[in-house]
Amino acid sequence: MPDSFGLSSIHVRQGNPDFLDLPWHLPLSRWPEVCRRLVEVERGLSRHEVVFASYDGVIYALKELPPRVGVHEYDLLCGLESRKLPAVAAAGHACTRLVQGDGGDCSVLITRFLESSLPYRTLFLNPGMERYRERLLDAMAGLLVRLHLAGFYWGDCSLSNTLFRRDAGELQAYFVDAETSAFREPLDDGLRAQDLLIMMENVAGDLAGIASLVEPHEAARIQNTGRVIRERYERLWSEITREEAIAPSENYRIHERIRALNELGFTVGEIELIATGEGDQLRVRTIVTDGDYHRHQLHSLTGVVASNRQAATMLNEIREIRATLSRELDRSASDSEAAYRWLHERFRPAVQRLASLTDRSDDLPELYCQVLEHKWFLSERAHADVGLERAIDDYLERFQHA
Ligand SMILES: Nc1ncnc2c1ncn2[C@@H]1O[C@H](COP(=O)(O)OP(=O)(O)OP(=O)(O)O)[C@@H](O)[C@H]1O
Ligand SMILES: [Mg+2]
Fold it and tell me: Same structural domain for residues 89 and 128?
């Protein structure tokens, strides 16, 4: 007798359809026969039944899972979203009860289809995609590092469980499939190592079929993929979690450290300066966060309107001031105190001087960032912090009449 189900509950996040018109009385494998909302899309391999339904052009992925697994995945995806980590967006979950037949109860996870995502097979098999293959290695390593920093254990990292999307010439990796995952904050080294081992094994499996379809020299490179992702992961992880000792006169080195992390695509959320107990040396610990709201954050703290990248640079300065302030005052200083100082002691006086270089006030944030860059360059050359005033003098001298 064919299985017949009843919908026992459905939970949907605001902003999504209620999904009540879907044929919940049938297993997902039978939906294509009766449901006109279903669409075909590019997709990876899966053990579970996955269908895609379209509502006014917005596509949702529905995945059939054993009881309670749907809500587990849903909760984890919401957790990743609240930490601004790249993952498919959870839209809801449902529970279906077996009414007739010999199947079992099910849960269904509903996620928003990630538009313009490329499955890894396209990246490996299509000509012209070589550039992206290189990016894929960094994207995978970067995604794993980000998840691990957030205390997230994946448990089934693979190319099939990752989606790739082109992002201004780069490739961004997105997490799909949280069946085996859990938040274990902070994630210990044993679990990180286990995740890497699983990744290497899964990636070898993902690519086994592809290696036989390409030229031998390309096949050798492909077979190394898991190992290269692991190496890049290790490099990135140690760069991010490294602590270093500095002397109080070497404040510019904090800036250097933040810059290095920004260049790797990470935002520094907090800086801690801790006495090492060895002379006046301080230990610098940086805590990285993700998120692309720098522009809004800068605006709400200071009223300054800048591009996202410029804002990220300026916010790093504000955090630097905050760390120094906290140390000087021997209490924790707030972002607002640091932002006030930054605005009145650094940004406004600097742009007042730089205004002679342009007629457009919109150019000022960019000019300010260029001066910071210049200051960093001069400080590195002098092995000492040259200060903003000197950097502006030198900058004006070079560009005033250029
Ligand atoms: N929200 C989404 N957006 C785009 N594609 C999706 C989405 N959800 C699932 N997919 C596609 O469906 C495939 C299968 O999904 P998923 O990995 O979650 O299923 P699974 O059966 O749990 O897989 P596994 O066999 O690894 O357990 C994915 O590889 C992906 O290509
Ligand atoms: Mg999967």
Answer: no
Q: Are residues 11 and 159 in the same domain?
A: no
Best mutation site among 40, 116, 176, 203 for ligand 1 pocket (most ligand atoms within 8 Å of CB): 176
Clarify whether residues 62 and 133 are in a common domain. no
User: What's the gap between Cα 119 and its chain centre?
Assistant: 18
pLDDT band at 355 (very low <50, low <70, confident <90, very high): very high
- CATH code at position 197: 1.10.510.10
What is the CA(161)–ligand 1 centre distance, in A?
Answer: 6
Peptide bond into 67 cis (omega under 30): no
Q: What is the mean pLDDT of residues 108-122?
A: 87
Q: How many CB atoms lie within 10 A of CB 393?
A: 13
pTM for the complete prediction? 0.73
Give residue for tokens 């904090």: 254
List pocket residues of ligand 1, CB cut-off 6 Å. Answer: 43-44, 46-48, 50, 61, 63, 88, 111-114, 117, 119, 160-161, 163, 176-177, 179
Q: Using the atom order of ligand 1, give the atom closest to the CA of residue 114.
A: 3
Last residue of a domain, one of 186, 215, 239: 239
